[in-house]
Amino acid sequence: MNMNEAIDLLKNKGYKTTGKRKDILTFFEQADGYRTAKDLIQHLESTYEGISFDTVYRNLHLYNELGILETTELNGEKHFRMKCTHHHHHHFICKDCGKTKEIDVCPMEEVTKRLANYDIEGHKFEIYGVCPACQTV
Amino acid sequence: MNMNEAIDLLKNKGYKTTGKRKDILTFFEQADGYRTAKDLIQHLESTYEGISFDTVYRNLHLYNELGILETTELNGEKHFRMKCTHHHHHHFICKDCGKTKEIDVCPMEEVTKRLANYDIEGHKFEIYGVCPACQTV
DNA sequence: TTTACAAATCGTAATCATTACGGTATTATA
DNA sequence: TATAATACCGTAATGATTACGATTTGTAAA
């Protein structure tokens, strides 16, 4: 998902494309990794002083519902990033900068075989650590 | 990890084995799956009316540090279960009853190869859904 | 078995992320 | 440009978790 696809999606669904909505998309497009609501608020404050929590969280939820953003929970805080739409994969997540690296390994085919009578609704596979750019040594 | 191992560990480390601590262990031993702090408080209330949040959370953290419990974050709430100490594996987690099923599949060997310059500190692989016992059909 | 003291607990307040809401402003489009 | 639906603001409420001074309790030495 990118900026233009997201804006088209908003328009097609009848949502208004406000300046704040565009700026939120730009923020995540440039982030290239996971960011929190707090990160976003801090970023938006420079342009929109006193922006409301309501606006931020409402739009994060909207984008999540529309499949513009994907989310994960780390350290008791929700993190968001632009949704990867091209093919199924997982992520290494850098705990310092939040940037992600695609991992094209998924063991679900094998796992599904072993859970014959289970109703599988989803799965999560994430690798945590420090990316090369953030290593101080 | 089981009740007796946990109590021995507490004693060896110089922690006191109070009635509440034992009851918390019993609760998780019988749970056979993930439970929240709220679940635990509700259970303890029947024996210890007005038990303090401090007591509950302090002991959950202690048990987590000592490797008696393991934890995961679901729906914005921390969930705890007795730690599996025998060998490395992952879990299917039933969203209705919290019970888990061991999954002896872990793709980390392959993943490690693909993250040569990355400092890997941990990973999470969980499968979510409904277990056979909770399926209403 | 008392005593002494560190550890554990209580009762409650504070914190942090998130959600909710009534009133106002803005956007899309007719 | 008028209109109505949508978005936003300012702020209060919620829910999980953390924190803290005062009090109680286990443990082990005397």
UniProtKB/TrEMBL annotation, chains A, B:
Cofactor(s) recorded in Swiss-Prot or TrEMBL: Mn(2+); Fe(2+); Zn(2+)
GO MF term set: DNA-binding transcription factor activity; transcription cis-regulatory region binding; zinc ion binding
Cofactor note: Binds 1 Mn(2+) or Fe(2+) ion per subunit. Binds 1 zinc ion per subunit.
Residues binding Zn(2+), per UniProt: 94, 97, 131, 134
Gene Ontology BP terms: negative regulation of DNA-templated transcription; regulation of secondary metabolite biosynthetic process
Binding residues for Fe cation: 88, 109, 123
GO cellular component terms, semicolon-separated: cytoplasm
Predominant localisation class: cytoplasm
Pfam assignment, any one: FUR
Domain of life: Bacteria
Family matches, as SUPFAM superfamilies: Winged helix' DNA-binding domain
Keyword tags: Cytoplasm, DNA-binding, Iron, Metal-binding, Repressor, Transcription, Transcription regulation, Zinc
Keyword Cytoplasm: yes
Stored InterPro entries: FUR, Fur_C, WH-like_DNA-bd_sf, WH_DNA-bd_sf
PANTHER family from the UniProt entry: FERRIC UPTAKE REGULATION PROTEIN, ZINC UPTAKE REGULATION PROTEIN
Similarity-based family: Belongs to the Fur family.
The name this protein goes by in its record: Zinc-specific metallo-regulatory protein
Record lineage: Bacteria, Bacillati, Bacillota, Bacilli, Bacillales
